[in-house]
Amino acid sequence: MKNRKRAIPWLYSLPALMLIGIVIVFPILYTAYISLTNMNLYHWSDYSLIGLENYKRALLKADSGFLSAIAVTLVWTAVNMGIQMVIAYFIALGLNVEGLKLKRVYKTLLMFPWAMPAYVSILLWKVCMYNTEFGLLNRILTALGLSKLNYLSENVPAFLACTVLNLWMALPFMIMMIDGALKSIDASLYESAMLEGAGFWQKTWYITLPCIRPIIAPSAIMTTFTTFKQFDIIYLLTKQKGSLTGASIQTIITYAHQNAFVSNNYGLSSAVSILIFGIIILFSVFTNRGLKEENR
Amino acid sequence: MRKRKINNALGLTLLNLVFIIICFVTLLPILYAFLLSVSDGSSAFTGGFFVSPKHFTLENYRRILTEEPFLIC
């Protein structure tokens, strides 16, 4: 009887568990298996186990490109998150100024980029803004009498172009989050601070930031994750199949993609994927613990 | 008191202006795509930003609704 009671919940959740097993757990395990083999263009079906050779190649050989891809990804995440938080904070502050009657209109307009499918907005930017011949930016430059620039052909301009696009796509979410958090602050705190004679920066530092931190932290972490594993922007802007632009910035995700589907080196790509998986798991454990301590 | 009121109004106007500029810059790509959609093919390649009445056309919309498999496949 007792055994049966214990078994029945498992029986009920069996279909869901099976689905999760097939869709999530099996691919991860299979990727881990492939990462230990030398499956590549020369060994499609006759691949064999080669141990940790792929990991060694990814981590220890400097010219494999993985380490520089990690560096680029970290810089990318840091730059994007920093700029995004600061700009979103100030725009949200502006939206919360008393007496601003059109704030709803502005909010709706600022939501626009977020409501568009990522694929559409990336290609929209690629064709309408960054294109060398009829992109808007180059049209403005020629109208001002300057020479045309090629935004996506070199690494640094392409990185900046991707950053601008990512900001354009991700800012609305951050603005809405901070805006909501700012609304939840008790106005009496500001009143008493004003009586004490606190300035703008003091109010920001001692009242606003501590008050909005519990709300901002989860959304900041979420955005950090999506920025860290950003693939669409860099891939579609610079290295879409058939329209390579010349820039060779690689984040770790595009690096894994390129090794798997361009140079057909499945073993190395799987090793890289497993490493990324490990990094993300570590990061999420770390941030979960940080959040828990904050709530105490 | 009155000076303060004027200052306040000035600040709000400035803020509104800033927000209008921000919104305009944000919507610029979408706006530009829209302008291209109502201009004929030649003006997309020659200079000038805005659709002059000479180049205004709804031909693109007619084509996508009737000739391309967009409405009914």
Give the key terms.
heterodimer, A: 296 residues, mainly alpha, two-stranded antiparallel ribbon, 12 helices, 74% helix, 1% strand, B: 73 residues, 67% helix
Written account of the structure:
Chain A is an all-alpha fold and 296 residues long. Chain A is built from twelve helices and two strands; from the N terminus they run H-H-H-H-H-H-H-H-H-H-E-E-H-H. The longest helix of chain A is centred in the N-terminal third of the chain and has 33 residues, at 2-34. Chain A starts with a helix and ends with a helix. The mean pLDDT of chain A is 86. In chain A, strand 1 (239-240) and strand 2 (243-244) form a beta hairpin. Chain A has a two-stranded antiparallel ribbon with strand order 1-2. In chain A, helix 2 crosses helix 12, helix 4 crosses helix 7 and helix 9 (200-228) runs antiparallel to helix 12. Chain B has 73 residues and is mainly α. Chain B has three helices and no strands. The longest helix of chain B has 36 residues, at 2-37. Chain B is elongated. Chain B starts with a helix and ends in a 7-residue tail after the last helix. The model of chain B has no long low-confidence stretch (mean pLDDT 78). The interface between A and B is medium-sized, with 26 and 20 residues.
Total beta strand runs of chain B: 0
- Strand pairing plus helix content of chain B: what structural class? mainly alpha
Helix content, binned percent of chain B = 55-70%
Strand content of chain A: under 5%
User: What structural category characterises the helix and strand content of chain A?
Assistant: mainly alpha
| Radius of gyration of chain B, whole Å | 21 Å
How is the biggest beta sheet of chain B arranged? none
Shape summary of chain A: globular
- Fraction of residues in H or I helices of chain A: over 70%
Question: Which protein chains are joined by the largest interface, and how many residues does each one contribute?
Answer: A-B, 26 and 20 residues
Across the major sheet of chain A, the strand order is 1-2
Low-confidence stretches of chain B: none
Largest sheet geometry of chain A: 2 strands, antiparallel
Radius of gyration of chain A using CA atoms only: 24 Å
Beta-strand segment tally of chain A = 2
Shape of chain B: elongated
- Average per-residue pLDDT of chain B, rounded, comes to 78
Spans of chain A of at least 5 consecutive residues whose pLDDT stays below 50 are: none
What's the mean pLDDT score of chain A? 86
Beta strand % of chain B: under 5%
